[in-house]
Amino acid sequence: MVVQLSSALTLGIMLGCLYAVIAIGLSLIFGIIRVINFAHGSITMIFLYLGFFLWQFWGIDPYLSLLIVVPAAFGFGYGVQHILIRPMFVREKAYVVEPLGVLMLLAGVDLILTNGALLGFGPYTRAVETSYSTSTMQLGFITVSVTRLILACIAVALTFGLSWMMNHTELGSRIRAVGQNREAAAICGINVHHVYAIAFGLGCAVTAFGGCATLPFYAIFPQMGMSLAIKAFIIVILGGLGSVPGALLGGIIIGVVESVGGQFVFATTATIFSLVIFLIILFFKPRGLMGTIEV
Amino acid sequence: MKQDSGIKGLAGGLKNRRIPLNWVIIAVVLIVLIIIPFVLEGEPYYVHIFVMIFLMGYLATAWGLVGQSGQLSFGHAAFFGLGAYTSSALYMDVGISPWIGMFVGAIVAVIAGLIIGYPTLRLRGPYFALATLAFCAILQIYVRNTPILGPLHLGAAWGITISPYLGGEGPAFFQFAGKTPFYFIALAMLAGIVYFSYQLNRTRLGYYWLAIRGDQDAAESLGINAGRYRLTAFLMSCALSAIGGTFYAQYYYFITPFRVLDISLSLEIALMGVVGGWQSIFGPMLGAFILVPISELVRAELGSVAMGLHLVIYGIIFVLIILFLPKGVNEPIMRGLSWLDTRHWRPSQNANNGKLGRQ
Q1: Strand, coil or helix: what is A153?
Q2: How far apart are CA B62 and CA B196, in angstroms?
Q3: Does any domain span residue B312?
Q4: Distance CA B96, CA B94 (A)
Q5: ipTM reported for the complex, 2 dp
Q6: Which H or E run includes A286?
Q7: Residues of A with Cβ-Cβ distance to B116 under 8 angstroms
């Protein structure tokens, strides 16, 4: 029983890290632009496909393909913000506090990406097969998958790396300034739209980074985006919208609930638990566990 | 000036152009829609397209009630599906007529709406939109994996097939031969909900919504409880969507979680609302009249070769509309109508009383 439970716990933490790598980017974007990236899941899906095709056609190892996928994701995010979202900010200017219009716009982007992928790549499930996909290692009496362990390390490293960047670099302080007060930052000479675009690009790049690291053990299909995105939405609200460490914590909580809960009840019931946790958090602590943004 | 009454008055009104243009258009459209099923007698496919237009228009208008209170729901399929499942399971397992099950479904949807809406509608920002989305997704997962709930058979992923009632009393159990009765029920539902929404906008509640979506801070400083009135809007919308779900179940005699509880259906409803004008009365209906024929045509012509193409087209239309017509196609149409009305139809009368809706 102890072995079983601690295995489930370890598995849950690793599953949580998988969710967290998607959620970190989402939370980062919200913390600065105050926009929920509705298309987050489908953007992740597109770059997972890019990683997959790099492996399929040129045999590039998923971890190596990060060098191509991450800059591409940054460019894509920068472009989406610059071409599609910026006109809405320019138009709505100061008097719109909650840009639901942008949320809808991104829902449209999500529709295009998901169904475009369905159209272009077909509804098939695909997976990368590497020599190390199934390799495991022993941690005490628990067996873990090496690739999942690498992903967990990446999630933790991304969280700390982003926190460090935000607090100790010039770009980081610019980004934080824009996130705190758009107008004041603009008065200080910061190019707000450039910073927004960098933030969006960074959010996509981080997610693509984590996403590609899931390729060795995670099968991909066009409609995976929405289920990933919904997990990420629950996680960022649980952890606190805009908080990157909160996204990691929230991801791990949801992962552990699903994995350990699945030992006692049906897995579907465990999924419903995550909705219940989500509603309870919204009811008692809408800022989330580590959130700082006023609601 | 005293108005004449009866047919003579109507004829005089038309001749002297005292009747607002909008009323004339509404009357003409209604008459055409009533004649259509008799013209299309031997073409059930085209009648079906109209039924789908009416149903989606009905759902989008119900969805629009939430939009009028200034929020956005991405999970309306959940309430639609709750209605469909409640009435179907009650009919199949208990033998209750869907005409009654329809209202039980509405009550179930309201309870679900209360659970989702109460914690989230107090908050600003995207919480409500995300909570409805998550609810829809998780409800689908639940139903997909639940064959039996108490005495009711939900049928898990296989869904519920509604067997025809053999006692010869089909209409008492919401069952009709042919599509024409469904056509008229759907038309009546659409006309009813649009009229309801129009009247609602002239009540105190409608003005509260207008104030809240215009400027929540200002509304709250005048003592309007934004969360409460948003919840009212949302619960009405849930109940009405559930009734639409019962209609769908009886129309198709077959429901599965992949059809009635799917997020893509939620998005489709929201899409029609936004394309038409998500904060207006007539907008969502217009959205359905524009988008449903596109999707049906694309599906019929290219459905087998190009999966998901109609949703790509929807997405592109959607993005363009949000970027260039943020108030939906409703706005230019209404402006054009009111211009025609005041300039050409009734130039002698003063403007404004002929406006169809706000904005």
Answers
A1: helix
A2: 10
A3: no
A4: 6
A5: 0.85
A6: none
A7: 279
- Sign of the torsion formed by the C-alpha atoms of B124, B127, B130 and B132: negative
Assign B152 to helix, strand or coil: strand
Residue count (chain B): 359
In this complex, which of B119, B127, B308 lies closest to A118 when CB atoms are compared? B308
Per the CB < 8 A criterion, the answer to whether A70 and A205 are in contact is: yes
This prediction's pTM: 0.86
CA distances from B242 to B40, B55, B81, B239 (A): 29, 12, 7, 5
Which class for A24: exposed (0-12), middle (13-18), buried (19 or more C-beta within 10 A)? buried
| Contact residues on chain B for A274, CB-CB shorter than 8 A | 138
Residue B146 lies in a domain: yes
User: Could you give the CA distance from residue B203 to residue B224 in angstroms, rounded to a whole number?
Assistant: 15
Closest C-alpha to A211, from A100, A72, A46: A46
Contact between chains at A98 and B115 (C-beta distance less than 8 A): no
Is some CB atom of chain B closer than 8 A to the CB atom of A275? yes
Q: Are B275 and B328 in contact (CB under 8 A)?
A: yes
Record the tokens describing residue B267, joined without a space: 């998005």
Q: Rounded to an integer, what distance in angstroms lies between the CA atom of residue B119 and that of residue A73?
A: 35
Enter the tokens of residue A263: 């030992």
Q: Which residue, among B70, B103, B55, has the nearest Cα to B234 in the 3D structure?
A: B70
CA distance A259 to A254: 9
* Domain locations along chain A: 25-223
Instruction: Tell me if A290 sits within 8 A of A246, measured CB to CB.
Output: yes
A contact test, residue of B127, B261, B316 with most A CBs within 10 A: B127
Q: Which of B244, B266, B308 is nearest to A38 (CA)?
A: B266
Task: Using a CB–CB cutoff of 8 Å, tell me whether A276 touches chain B.
Answer: no
pLDDT tens digit sequence for A208-258: 988 888 888 888 888 888 888 888 888 988 888 878 888 888 888 888 888
d(CA B237, CA B75): 12
Spatial contact of B153 and B93, defined as CB atoms under 8 Å apart? yes
| Cα gap B211→B202, rounded to integer Å | 13
Split into its structural domains, chain B has a count of 1
Residue B294: inside a domain, yes or no? no
Residues from chain A that touch B135, judged by Cβ atoms under 8 A, are: 275
CA distance A242 to A235: 11
Domain that holds residue B136: 44-284
> Do B189 and B244 meet the contact criterion of CB atoms below 8 Å apart?
yes
Query: What's the rounded Cα separation, in Å, for the pair B349 and B54?
Result: 34
Residue B88 lies in a domain: yes
Tens-digit pLDDT profile for residues B84-125: 999 988 888 887 888 888 999 999 999 999 999 988 888 877
Taking phi over 0 as left and psi of -120 to 50 as alpha, with beta for the rest, B174 belongs to left
